[in-house]
Amino acid sequence: MAESSPTPKAAETETKLSTSVPTKPLNCFSGAFVSGSLALLLYRLAHSIAITFAHKPVTSDNITVLKISVAVRTLVVGMVALGAGVFGLAAVGLAALGVQILIQRLLGKRSPADE
Fold first, then answer.
1. What is the pLDDT of residues 65-83, one digit of tens each?
2. Cα 41 to Cα 67: distance, rounded to the nearest angstrom
3. Which of left, alpha, beta for 57 (phi over 0: left; psi -120 to 50: alpha)?
4. C-beta atoms surrounding 71 within 10 Å
5. For residues 88 and 19, is the Cβ–Cβ distance under 8 A?
6. Residue 101 CB neighbours (<10 A)
7. Out of 81-85, 99-103, 107-111, which region has the weakest mean confidence (pLDDT)?
């Protein structure tokens, strides 16, 4: 079986993929701000949903209805809280990365991505 050499287009695409843009602290901090804002909004939404669910109890004599409503309410609040947590952790990570890059630039060290 004959080996085929990569086509010029495939080699060009590979070259484009291998070159990386250096990460800038401003990009990290702006991403952290956006992610933190979304985390705060989702946290407030989860809190609002939980308060609304607490003030409007399910009135039913059927135990199955009560169990299903508790499960749905828990899932709704849990999913929104999970989203808030994920965006919050992403904000912390991006802010920490921005600080790390800023410190490296101030000390004159080069990051492995720059090499």
1. 999 999 999 999 999 999 9
2. 29
3. beta
4. 10
5. no
6. 20
7. 107-111
* Model pLDDT for residues 38-57, shown as the tens digit of each residue: 999 999 999 999 999 999 98
What's the residue count for the chain?
115
Contact 35, 91 (CB under 8 A): yes
Q: Please give the structure tokens belonging to residue 41.
A: 């909004």
Structure confidence by residue, pLDDT tens digits, 19-37 = 778 888 899 999 999 999 9
35 phi and psi, to 5 degrees? -65, -40
The DSSP annotation for 36-60 comes to HHHHHHHHHHHHHHHHHHHHS----
Contacts of 33 (CB under 8 A, 6+ apart): 91
Give which of 16, 18, 22 is closest to 110, Cα–Cα: 22
Give the start-to-end residue ranges of the domains of the chain.
Answer: 37-115
